[in-house]
Design brief:
By secondary structure, the protein is an alpha+beta fold. Helix content is 50%, strand content 10%. The protein contains ten helices and four strands. Helix 1 (12-20) crosses helix 8 (139-156), helix 6 (99-115) runs antiparallel to helix 7 and helix 7 (120-134) packs across helix 9. Residues 1-23 have low confidence and may be disordered.
Length: 232
């Protein structure tokens, strides 16, 4: 069963409208690190994390921006951590997913998000799991949905994906796949593009209802973290 088919994004246009209210702004990580490290400030990272995990819908677009991109400035930032996607797939295997399967999947997802709170793909999975476990109108499903949309709108506010210069900025390549899951896009090819000292993932898609041929993602911060980890 394709996990992407289980998530129906019925407000994609609304999300784009919300994202358009924030000017496209490539993250300045040096400035972001200083801002989210200011204890007692509006953008202090631990407080933004607490509010996001509580699905606080009063978080502003600017606060979400500092939260998401501020994650890449934290000492434990690791965009290439090993995530337990196999555990989710195993729990949801088969043509018909049982309640126990959804429960097991939710447990794996919740554990993963404790250590990787901005992982868009796992948030998409959690929204699916909670909707099936507790009902689409439940508070649990609503909170999970709101968290998905917070991350989605933040990424959408960073560019338009049409060119390397206006690429969507992500702090993990898994967020690229989370966005594609949400939009129901199937990957045809992926290539790494290096330009002017920056790194981009060029994702090309199979035929889709949006007539979208490709999207550029800026993954420079991910590549820089990998170089630091492996010393090259």
């Amino acid at each position: 069963m394709l996990l992407s088919s289980l998530f129906v994004l019925d407000s994609c246009s609304t999300s784009r409208k919300a994202a358009n209210n924030v000017a496209m702004n490539a993250p300045n990580y040096k400035q972001i690190k200083k801002t989210v490290g200011s204890k007692g400030g509006e953008f202090y990272y631990p407080e933004l994390l607490r509010r996001f995990q509580a699905a606080d819908t009063t978080l502003t677009a600017e606060q979400l921006y500092y939260f998401y991109y501020g994650t890449a400035t934290r000492p434990d930032y690791n965009p290439y951590r090993l995530n337990n996607y196999d555990g989710v797939k195993e729990a949801l295997s088969g043509d018909t997913v049982t309640e126990e399967g959804w429960r097991k999947a939710a447990q794996v997802i919740d554990e993963e998000l404790e250590s990787d709170p901005t992982n868009l793909r796992f948030h998409v999975y959690r929204q699916m799991a909670y909707s099936n476990l507790y009902g689409k109108e439940s508070q649990e499903a609503a909170d999970a949905y709101n968290q998905v949309m917070m991350l989605f709108s933040t990424i959408m506010s960073s560019g338009n994906g049409k060119t390397p210069e206006t690429a969507f900025h992500v702090i993990s390549t898994t967020d690229e796949y989370g966005l594609m899951d949400m939009l129901g896009l199937s990957l045809k090819s992926q290539s790494l593009v290096e330009r002017h000292g920056r790194s981009y993932d060029l994702m090309e898609f199979q035929e889709n209802k949006y007539d979208l041929e490709s999207i550029y993602f800026d993954v420079t911060v991910c590549m820089e973290a990998m170089h630091k980890m492996f010393g090259f």
